[in-house]
Every structure is written in C-alpha cells, then in structure tokens.
C-alpha cells in the first residue's frame, strides 16, 4: 500500500468513527464549547405539562409556562441550579393548569421583568392564584398576541406569531406561539396551539421556518398538521409529555408525520429534560433522565366525593384536597370523567 492509498484508508476510518459517535450539528461539525456558551433552551421534564427555560448568553432568562401545580419545587430547584435569579420575560401561553400551574410560585420566588399572557380568562383557582401573585408583585400583564415583539436579549429576536383571533371555542388556540431567533438558528414554541391556530399562522404569511419545534399540545393529533410541519421544516422536534398519560399523547399519526418528514424527535417522557445549546450556527443537544412517571403527580379530591381530579377541574369549587395519585387509587378514588386525570 503506497502513501496515497494509506491516506485514503485513514480518511475512511476517520469518517466511520465520526459517524459512529453521532453528530448534533445543525449545519457544520459541532464546536461544543462554543455552542454551550451561547443560547440555552431547556425543555424541563414536568410530565404531562410544559415548562421551557431560555437563557441568553448575555445573562437574561425567559420562562415559557411552568408545569402543573405540583411541579413548583422541581421547577424552582432546577432554575436555582442553573443560576437563575431573575426572570426577565415570563410567558403563560394559555390558562390551562398544566401550563400555568406553578407560575404563581415562580412569580413569588424570583424578580420578574415582564409578564405575557393571552387575553383570555379561566374560572379556576389555578388561574386566580396566578393573577393574585401578579398583583401582589405589582406587575402588569402584557397581551400575548400575534405581531408583538418581545424585548429579551440584544442578540435575539423574539416574536409572538399567535393567537391571531380575539376569540376561540377552545382555550388551547389562545396559546401564545413564540419564535426565537439567535444568529442562524431558530426555535418555535407552540404551547397547545391546535390546527385552527396553525392554519391562521399559515394564512398570515409568517416566516415559520425553525430548526427546533416544540410540538403543539403534547403531540396531539389536533396539532402539527402536515402543512404546518412543511412550513416549519424543523430538524428537531420536542414533545413535552408524561409517561403513560391518559390521553395517548403523543398520537401515533403525529409520530408518523414526523418520521416521514425526517424530523429527529426528543420526548421528555423518554429522555427527561432536554437541553439545546447553540452559538448561533451549531446546536448541541443533551438529555437528562429524571425518571418522572405518572405516579409522581399530585391530584385532587373533595371532602365528600369519590373521584380524583386535575387541579383546574371545575368540580373542585367546594373543596380541593391535594393527594398523591398512588394514594388516591389505594383509597379507592376513581378518575374524574370530566377533567380526565392520569390513571
């Protein structure tokens, strides 16, 4: 074997080794240390709920949603571990308990800059608790609506792309959909926005293209239409979902759409917390398995009833007693057919 042939063999071996190690690069070979000192997007493992922490390289923090009521300790512990002392931008995408459950605790715990929520109310104690926390802190709510630009960090562009209508039949479609751009990389966070909202964004002509898509409504078939996925064209998709949830999320048809589109999927029920770090050109992905299961969640019972409920169930108006799911089942409580809690 001459020198030229030897060099060719070495190049082939090197290529095979690199392929075996895997690449989290978006466009070029990853420069890990550079990417990890840039923008960080944490998709926290909060079970069947949403909570996303965004940390700018210049020190600003944004939090999109805050899980269920019983996720407060976990969220605060995680934020503290990441050095968070102030949340410059706080977003409650819509007033369902699995998105704003621990928002009141977050507001009470940290210095808060600006709060964004859609113009819609909800008749639950969870929503009331959030409003009280905002009032007690002397904060005001900025309307989360399409066309708003969020002042977050000097090196980022953050735009709200939905909601686009003043009224919907389903609270999910009030979800604030946010696109964040940093350098040549971009993220699209969709809350629980369903096909109605997706179609409105498509019709409005927004630039929906993003490298990372947080799938709407925990991977439900009510979201992530083929047309929407084609417009976003993400390389990566994140599904925030609880293991063994009662809704069957993510739905099989959505997973099929993602597979057919060649989108690499990360699920919090399988990977735990998922971290994307980018220097504006490259993306590094890390996962942290936390081992959360549906048995970890807190559900609620009444003093006289025989059912257990989600925290924002309308049937909890008279009394609301927290209890672990495993204990509720041991004591013979059955799941509420209205709010459909985990089983």
On the 0 to 100 scale, the average pLDDT is: 87
Summarize the amount of helix as a percent range.
25-40%
H/E order of the elements? HHEEEHEHHEHEEEEEHEHEHEHEEEEEHE
CATH superfamily of the largest domain: Ribonuclease Z/Hydroxyacylglutathione hydrolase-like
- Main sheet: which strands, in order across? 6-5-4-3-2-1-14-15
* SS summary, helix count: 11
CATH architecture of the largest domain: 4-Layer Sandwich
Q: What value does the Rg take, in angstroms?
A: 21 Å
Total beta strands: 19
Question: Mind telling me the CATH class of the largest domain?
Answer: Alpha Beta
Shape: globular
- Relative strand content: 15-25%
Main sheet: strands, sense, barrel: 8 strands, mixed
The helix-and-strand class reads: alpha/beta
Topology-level CATH name of the largest domain: Metallo-beta-lactamase, Chain A
CA distance, first residue to last residue: 66 Å
Give the secondary structure arrangement, pairings included.
Layout: H1 3-21, H2 32-36, E1 39-43, E2 52-55, E3 61-64, H3 72-81, E4 86-91, H4 97-100, H5 103-109, E5 111-117, H6 125-136, E6 141-143, E7 149-150, E8 156-162, E9 177-182, E10 185-189, H7 195-204, E11 212-214, H8 226-232, E12 236-239, H9 252-260, E13 264-267, H10 268-271, E14 273-278, E15 283-288, E16 298-301, E17 307-309, E18 321-324, H11 325-330, E19 334-335
Parallel strand pairs: 3-4, 4-5, 5-6, 10-11, 11-12, 12-13, 17-19
Antiparallel strand pairs: 1-2, 1-14, 2-3, 7-8, 8-9, 9-10, 14-15, 16-17, 16-18
Concise summary:
The chain has 343 residues and is an alpha/beta fold. Helices cover 27% and strands 25% of the residues.
């Amino acid at each position: 074997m001459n020198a030229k042939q030897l060099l060719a063999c070495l190049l082939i071996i090197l290529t095979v080794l690199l392929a075996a190690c895997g690449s989290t690069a978006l466009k070029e070979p990853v420069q890990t240390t550079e990417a990890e000192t840039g923008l960080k997007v944490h998709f926290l493992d909060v079970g069947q709920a949403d909570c996303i922490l965004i940390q700018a390289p210049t020190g600003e923090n944004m939090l999109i949603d805050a899980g269920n009521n019983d996720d407060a300790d976990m969220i605060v512990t995680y934020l503290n571990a990441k050095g968070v002392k102030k949340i410059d931008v706080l977003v409650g995408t819509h007033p369902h308990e699995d998105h704003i459950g621990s928002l009141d605790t977050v507001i009470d715990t940290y210095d808060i800059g600006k709060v964004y929520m859609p113009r819609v109310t909800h008749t639950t104690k969870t929503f009331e608790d959030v409003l009280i926390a905002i009032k007690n802190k002397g904060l005001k709510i900025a309307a989360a609506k399409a066309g708003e630009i969020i002042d977050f960090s000097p090196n980022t562009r953050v735009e709200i792309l939905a909601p686009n209508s003043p009224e919907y039949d389903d609270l999910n479609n009030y979800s604030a959909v946010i696109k964040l751009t940093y350098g040549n990389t971009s993220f699209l966070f969709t809350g629980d926005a369903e096909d109605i909202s997706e179609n409105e964004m498509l019709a409005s002509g927004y630039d929906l293209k993003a490298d990372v898509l947080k799938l709407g409504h925990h991977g439900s078939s009510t979201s992530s239409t083929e047309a929407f996925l084609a417009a976003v064209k993400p390389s990566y998709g994140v599904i925030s979902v609880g293991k063994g949830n009662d809704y069957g999320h993510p739905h099989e048809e959505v997973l099929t759409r993602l597979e057919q589109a060649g989108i690499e999927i990360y699920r919090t029920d399988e990977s735990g917390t998922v971290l994307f770090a980018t220097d504006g050109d490259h993306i590094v992905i890390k996962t942290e398995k936390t081992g959360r299961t549906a048995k970890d969640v807190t559900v609620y019972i009444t003093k006289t009833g025989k059912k257990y409920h989600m925290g924002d169930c309308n049937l909890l108006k008279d009394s609301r007693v927290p209890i672990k799911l495993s204990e509720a089942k041991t004591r013979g409580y059955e799941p509420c057919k209205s709010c459909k809690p985990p089983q």
